[in-house]
Design brief:
about 15% strand; Mannose-Binding Protein A, Chain A; about 25% helix; Collagen
Length: about 280
């Protein structure tokens, strides 16, 4: 009887377990949603984020005030000769002059002829002084004077300016040849000319210009063994140029004492007469 009772209890217990739909777990079941809490304190600033894309360009601002006048730059190269202008209008007729008096034309013609002869002699005398006494050379636009006083380049430039000119700058083949003949006839091998290195590029090469700050204008006659693109030696100042008796150019130390050539422009006076030639030293 007791065994039967125990068996019935076990069968009933198993039936209750199999009939139950609930499953026993260790998970906690969440409760109902609570009310909204109070706002907390402001947190620390976060890390700086990446830069965003650029925005749209803003509206153009108002023009600023006009600045002060800048310093005058270096003189640029001479421009091309302009076209000939139109002929002006004819001027008004002058008043009628007084009647002339009878003159002895033959006597005046004789005086004029003698004056022409004297002028011719004077021109020959001036030419003799320029070419023989002073030893000048000239072109249609300039005189050239060889100064046989050894000086450094800067001193030579100042010396030419004190004479009323500048250190000679051979800007074409004809002028270069005239100066070469001038130097050769004097028995010299080289002289200073007005060509000098202006600056050095980032790669160390030098840019050469004339003494009047104008570019070389396409005329250069460097010696074949001369490397003008190489940087100057740090222990020397080889940024000046000499004209050799061979007709070529070469770099030379600006501190070297050398002879030099000065040039003087022929400025025209009213009436077509030229200014006097420069005085020799």
């Amino acid at each position: 009887m007791p065994r039967l009772l125990v068996l019935c209890v076990l069968v009933l217990f198993c039936f209750c377990i199999s009939a139950s739909t609930e499953v026993c777990t260790n998970a906690l079941i969440p409760g109902a949603k609570g009310e909204k809490g109070e706002m907390g304190e402001e947190g620390d600033a976060g890390k700086l984020g990446k830069a965003g894309p650029p925005g749209l360009p803003g509206a153009q601002g108002e023009p600023g005030l006009k600045g002060e006048v800048g310093q005058m730059g270096k003189m640029g190269p001479a421009g091309d000769k302009g076209d000939k202008g139109d002929t002006g209008l004819d001027g008004l007729l002058g008043f009628k002059g007084k009647a002339g008096t009878t003159c002895d034309c033959g006597r005046y013609r004789k005086v004029i002829g003698q004056l022409d002869l004297n002028v011719s002699k004077l021109k020959n005398g001036v030419k003799f002084v320029k070419n023989v006494v002073l030893g000048l050379r000239e072109t249609e636009e300039r005189y050239y004077l060889l100064v046989k006083e050894p000086k450094r380049f800067r001193e030579a430039s100042v010396n030419c300016r004190l004479r009323g000119g500048s250190i000679a700058m051979p800007k074409d083949n004809n002028t270069n040849r005239l100066m070469v003949d001038y130097v050769s006839e004097a028995g010299l091998t080289s002289v200073y000319i007005g060509v000098q290195a202006q600056s050095q590029d980032t790669n160390g090469s030098s840019t050469y210009i004339y003494a009047d700050s104008s570019p070389l204008q396409g005329f250069e006659t460097w010696n074949q063994v001369e490397d003008v693109k190489s940087p100057s030696s740090p222990s020397t100042n080889s940024s000046c140029v000499e004209l050799l008796s061979t007709g070529t150019w070469a770099r030379v130390d600006c501190e070297a004492n050398m002879f030099f050539v000065c040039e003087f422009p022929k400025s025209r006076r009213r009436g077509g007469g030229a200014t006097p030639a420069p005085a020799s030293s």
